[in-house]
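Hi all, long-time lurker, first post. I run a small reading group and we've been trying to get comfortable going from sequence to structure in the token notation. Rather than ask abstract questions, I figured I'd post a concrete chain and ask someone more experienced to write out its structure so we can walk through it together at our next meeting. Sequence below, copied exactly:
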Amino acid sequence: MTVTWEEAGWERLAAGVGRCRLPGWDCTVGLVIGGDSALLIDAGSSLAEGARLRGQAQALAGRRVPLLALTHLHFDHVFGAAVFAG
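-- Answer (accepted) --
Happy to help. Here is the structure in token form:
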């Protein structure tokens, strides 16, 4: 099943590139999907938010998202990172 960016609550910016504005803290998360891999940029403010973002990113990429980049160490960008362990 193919999920569109909009159905997942994301804004498509270009082919394979999108962003999602998170509620509450005005944090923006990014996703870049390439031919062989995918990169999520920032992980949200909680484990639950991180898990939701991971699931959405995997649905959009059609595969596991193995790469995570954290832009800076504010809690609303990093606390969800633990769900990406391994």
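A couple of things your group might point at:
Residues 23 and 65 are 22 Å apart (CA to CA).
The mean pLDDT is 94.
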